[in-house]
Amino acid sequence: MKRIAVLTSGGDAPGMNAAIRAVVRQAISEGMEVFGIYNGYAGMVAGDIHQLDASSVGDIISRGGTMLHSARYPEFAEREGQLKGIEQLKKHGIEGVVVIGGDGSYHGAMRLTEHGFPAVGLPGTIDNDIVGTDFTIGFDTAVTTVMDAIDKIRDTSSSHHRTFVIEVMGRNAGDIALWSGIASGADEIIIPEEGFAIEDVVESIKKGYEKGRTHNIIVLAEGVMSAAEFGKALKDAGDTSDLRVTELGHIQRGGSPTARDRVLASRLGAHAVKLLKAGIGGVAVGIRNEQMVENPILGSAEEGALFSLTEDGKIKVNNPHKADLNLAELNRSLSSI
Ligand code: ADP
Ligand code: F6P
């Protein structure tokens, strides 16, 4: 391939800029031309497509957000939108596209693949809920941000002998809660992948204070319920502690990416370009056991493909992401006093 494009889509994630930089600079060093598609799939369909050079991506490696901007554009779930997008790419002479985004963005990449247009998916989301990779770009930064926030809450929590319910993002995945909970020494981690009994949580809070704990930090994944709802459930179940709830919100999506996210983004971005250069599209890149890997985006579960299509054309996720429940078990051992 001689001319490729790159876009960011869905929720932004720290490290997306480092990935864009890697795609652009690697493409140029491979002798290819590279275009930026602004505002995700919306920009693809609208033709918001502009050539980038090495200096277009200078000074962005340290910045959160995405210089190409992002969009939520449900129209791309329709065939008409997808074909219009491909028409725009072809009009610009673009032969392959790197899609940096989360779960929804990958569905878009799958539709491009289905229509025969070469796309490479690159996992960019704080949620870490993408199949085919151990880690996503932005996850490490989000976990670090949450850990810093919990460290601060712990200070005030201890001073006042308070219980805190801290709601963290992750959509339906508990990864951010598990990693930030372990890293900040949480007393409880509540995630959607595991059931919990509210009476047990009430009991553990009570026992904790009796045994001399000065605080109770409960990290709650948003996929379970909101912090406000969880706090109310605790009170309804008899909790008598001095309770506060905090929703960390979009602070988790911003900020300068950690070294780990920058390096991951750089490796994935360069790998995606090498694949397109070799004429390989229709794959999602990822990191497995510290090595770059790629899986077909569309195909059978046996082939290791991320998605299959049902007879009526609906998307089926072959091997849905699973949070590492060993971490939940680890936290139970480490938080017991
Ligand atoms: P994320 O990529 O972070 O999961 P979204 O779920 O909002 O974020 O998806 C981002 C974009 O991907 C959507 O706004 C839409 O343009 C595209 N998209 C989502 N689902 C589909 C789908 N089923 N088919 C085609 N495109 C999709
Ligand atoms: O997918 C990333 C994410 O930040 C989720 O963790 C969260 O549920 C969602 O996006 C928030 O979306 P929005 O930015 O549309 O509020």
Automatic annotation (TrEMBL):
Active-site residues, as the UniProt record annotates them: 127 (proton acceptor)
Q: What is its cofactor?
A: Mg(2+)
InterPro entries xrefs: ATP_PFK (IPR022953), ATP_PFK_prok-type (IPR012003), PFKA_ATP_prok (IPR012828), Phosphofructokinase_CS (IPR015912), Phosphofructokinase_dom (IPR000023), PKF_sf (IPR035966)
Name where it's found: Cytoplasm
Q: Which UniProt keywords apply?
A: Allosteric enzyme, ATP-binding, Cytoplasm, Glycolysis, Kinase, Magnesium, Metal-binding, Nucleotide-binding, Transferase
Annotated residues that bind substrate are located at: 125-127, 162, 169-171, 222, 244, 250-253
- PROSITE patterns with a match to the protein in the record: PHOSPHOFRUCTOKINASE (PS00433)
The residue ranges of the Phosphofructokinase domain are 3-276
EC number(s) per UniProt? 2.7.1.11
- Reactions that this protein is recorded to catalyse: beta-D-fructose 6-phosphate + ATP = beta-D-fructose 1,6-bisphosphate + ADP + H(+)
Provide the binding site for ADP. 21-25, 154, 185-187, 211
Q: Could you say which enzyme class this protein belongs to?
A: transferase
Query: Per its record, how is this protein called by name?
Result: ATP-dependent 6-phosphofructokinase
Lineage, uppermost ranks: Bacteria, Bacillati, Bacillota, Bacilli, Lactobacillales
